Structure formats: structure tokens, C-alpha cells
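Exercise 7 asks you to align residues with C-alpha cells for two separate proteins.
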Amino acid sequence: MARAADQEPLIFAAASLKDALDAVDGAWRNESGGRVVISYGASSALAKQIEQGAPADVFISADEDWMDYLATHRLIKPDTRFDLLGNSLVLIAPKDSTLTAKIAPAFPLAALIGEGHLAMANTDSVPAGKYGKAALTKLGVWDQVSGKIAQAENVRAALLLVSRGEAPLGIVYATDARSDPNVKVLDIFPEDTHPPIIYPVAETVGSTNKDAGAFLAFLKSSAARGVFEAQGFRVLSTP
């Protein structure tokens, strides 16, 4: 069911975008006088909701796979799609942790976890979890820790497990770690250990909202770029 053309655009966005996109919404409001409604969650869950008829006008995924999924099902407007942002993957610990780690092939991750668990977004479906599993597999340590994963519904939920001290280590995006003063980054996963972290954007095929396209254009603006970069994202789009 599509939303009415005169309603505020409904944006479905990856959970890791919350701080940045909330700020972009504020900038959009100041510049245009309009506003958007943003629903955050795991890209996998949001894509499935769109497939089931959820009235989103715009989808912002944390990976290409779920945008490709909607494209295959002809649920996005192909000519509106573009790559918006890039990110990095990091290993985090609670801010007062004494653990140290250097990410490298066969590094002793299982020993670092000890009797605890490694907090990750769902490794089968959620982009952050999939990137993390790919990295650990490439580094040769996945088999050692696969039984010690605390699977979360999205990357922000994984971040919270570490922030609360419920998990000694976690894998999240660099921007997530930056958003939470209760965690610290132990190391950054080398980019060659996982697929490129890319956030694609597109308008859904069912959208008739008159402001959806304008908001997509605003995401490429210098004002939005400044917000995204301040949050630690790499901006891939150009005006």
C-alpha cells in the first residue's frame, strides 16, 4: 500500500544510520520546511517488510544485497538508486575493559572472549553480521568463535550488549562505536577481509510521494554531506 502523495515521506533505513539520519532530517526540515518519518531496523527486516507491502517511500540499506533483493523483485525504481555512504567495521569492548587486540590472521579472538560472548548482528541476514562473519572467516577465526556469538536483531542492539557490559567484545560499524561513549574501539578490520560496506538508497516502486525525490536529492547535498562526515561515514554520492 503506497502512502498518499501529500503525506510526509516514510523512510526505511538501516539501524546504523539513526544518529546521522536524524540530524539530516533536522537539516532537511530547516531548509525545506518539510519533514520525513524514519523507521529504523535491520536492512533484512526492512526489505522483507517492503516486500510484504509496507508503505515505505525510500529504502536505505546497509548493504547492496538487500537493495538487490528488492530490485530483483521489482520493488524499487532503478533510476533513483545510488550509493550514498561507506563505513568501516571495528572490534569494540566496554570503555573500561582492559582487553587489547590486534586484528590479524588467526588472532586469539576466542581467548579474548573467554567465557563471554561476541556481540554481533545476526550473521545470516543482517549486513553488519554478514560483514563480520566474512571478516572472521577470512582471518581464519570464525570456527573458533561461532559457538560464542551473541546474535542481535540489528547492529545497534549488538552495540548495546557491549555498552551495557553484557558482552566483553562486539563487532559493529565504526560509526556505531563513535556514537556510544560507553564503548571503545580495540582495532579496525582491514577492508580486504570483508565486502565493501556500502549504503545504497532508492525510492520504492509504490511511492507516489511528491517529496520523496526531493529528500533523495537532499541526501546528496553539501548540508547532508557535512552531517554524514561528522558522524564518521564516507560519503560516496555527489550532488
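Second protein for Exercise 7:
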Amino acid sequence: MNTTPPTIGGVTIDEICNLSGTPVYVYDADVIARNVRRLHAAFASIPARFMYAVKALSNTAILQLMKQLGTGLDTVSIQEVHRGLRAGFEPREILFTPNMIAFDEIREAVQLGIHINIDTISVLERFGHEFGNTVPVCIRINPHIMAGGNERISTGHIDSKFGISIHQMRHVLRVVASQGMHINGLHMHTGSDILDADVFLQGAEMLFEIAENFPDLEFVDFGSGFKVAYKPDDIATDIEDLAAKLSERVIMFNSGRERPVEVWFEPGKFLVSESGTLLARVNVLKQTTATVFAGVDTGLNHLIRPMLYNAYHHISNVSNPTGTPRVYTVVGYICETDTFGWDRKIAEIREGDILAFANAGAYGMTMASNYNSRLRPAEVLVYNGKASLIRRRETLDDVLSTEIEIDLAP
């Protein structure tokens, strides 16, 4: 029987929970570093740049780690831009790809010196009218490629709100010419959980064809969407196969150009998902006529992916890992049906045990809320074998701090 205490990055679960309490998000820096190095190695034959998607996990310590590992940042709001700058990134290391925002955010990003990516013709026209050729800009194309593991994370199809339709390129070219604009990049993102390298190759052919219209192009950005394994038997994107096939096409494209273009990617989930674990304590065991519920001290207010995307997260009992497996339905403490997993076979659960939700590094804490006036959890980073608190647990005073009392006396 294995009696070694369960660990994350070499630190025991008990030590982490004593530091932060539960629930808590825990991130293993070694896993993040390994994934960054894997991308750099796979695409070593071409001028590739990796812009970490901040929306996946935006804690400042994580951004500082990404800076140390040599990534840039992909941001989708001016607030994420400022997060990146505060974390030590240079403006030239940040790409701003907003959608449906007020033009003031774009204007502010220009003033900060950030790379701008525009996905609407009317916004492109306004940008050209205001800045002409004085500020380079990237154009986001919608390739009308249906890809992604869930309709809510598929962004390149014909009904998507993202990007300028590839069928509108003649209009785009007229806008660019009439305003004398400097186009320095072309961008596309088809969605998440993409397995087939041919999706990227199909998009590459489109972008390379469009690129012939822009002699000053500096980069083409393929977004990301690399699939990670959530279930034990899940299939993930074969990064090395994708890199080999796409790199061959990039080398061919660049061979005919006076100035080779860089190839950018925007990995988020791929870099941080596997690094993250959500630890939660079992509050209640409840048996009904049909089900044994294990109720934990977290809910959809902390990890909404299973409820929003029907996402699977492997759940294990780290307090009793050698216990006899039994079937449980793991649920949260929110006044909604916040079910993390139906009929899961898990080592026998006792009240007070700690359950670990795997692959919780991406779109976990960044999508957390104060629903039911619950407090958002702490975050811990395990780096070089040491666990450090990188976000303290919220208090009710934190939650109420922006509310303003008024006199309601009759």
C-alpha cells in the first residue's frame, strides 16, 4: 500500500491547505514551464512567438512567470493590458484583441504602445481615420472554419461575432488603401479543443493568400485552441505533428518574401490547465433513494466550466487515496444545480476529506464570481518546491467594499 502523502509540485496537500484553507486553486509552475518549453522546441525551425492568453489565468504571479519563460501576452480587455504592464511586460510584448468594445479602450491601448488587433470593419475605418499610417494595426479574420469542442468556444464559424469575414476582404482592402493604413499583422482564431492539424493548415493557406496584399506584414497569428486531456483516456492535440506540418508551410511562404513573417500563437489552456488543481473540502455526505451526494465547500461560483460547458474534471480523494472506490455525485454549495460530476467512482469519501479537481488551471479562477455572496477562494503557486500564497481568500468586507449605502428613510 502506498502511504506517501499526495503532493503538488513536491509540496503536500496538507501543507498547502494549512497555508490557504479550502477551497483553494493551486498551480504547479513546473508544469507551466514544461508546456512553454515544449512549444518552443516544437516550433524551433521557424520564427515563432507565443502570446499567453491572459483570460485563461490572470494572476499577476502567473504573468510574471510567463514573462520569465519568454512569452508575450494576448489580452482582450484594457484591464488585462494593464495587468500585463504591471507584471513587467513591455508594450511591444502585448497584443490587444478586443471585441465589441468602446473605441476609448482602443485609443488608450494605442497611447500605451500596445499591438492592436481589430475585428470589425467599422472599427477599422475609424482607426484609419484617426491614426492613418502612424500606428500599425493587425486585422482579425473570420475564416468560417467550424472548429472547437463546444459551440460556446468555437469562434471561427460563419455566425460568430468574432473577426472580419474572409468574404469581406475586398472591402477591407479598400478601407486600408483609402486610409493609407499600415497593416503589420493578420490574425485568426477558430476555437478551442482543436485536434486536427489540417484546421490550422487550412487557416494558414487563407492567411498566406491574404498576406500577399500587405507587403509590410510582420506577423501572422493563428490563435490557439490546442486541446488538452481532461479525461484519463482523452486525446490531446499532437503539438509536434502540428508544428512539423505548419512549419514546413511557413518556411515555404517565407522563402519568397524579402522580409520573413513571424508566426504567433496564443496558447492559454494548453499552458496552464494541467498545472491547476482546485482543492475543496467535503462538507456533507447525503444519501437519497438513488444517489450518494458528496457536497463540497465550493460550487459553480468557483468552477463554472462543468455547468457552462459540460466540461469534465477528474475528481480524486486525496485524503483517502487508497480507500475502496465507491460511486458518488459531487455537488457544490450553491443554490443551483451545481454538479461537478455525476456517478463518479472515487475512493471512499468521508466528511472532512479533501477532493482534488484536476485540470483546473484554465478558466477556473478567472471565471469565479460572488454568486450567493460567497467569497472567491485563495490561490497558491508552487515554485521550486515551495508553496506561496499569490491571492488571499476574499472577505465579506472585500465583497461589500464597492457598495454604497444610501438613506432610505421615508
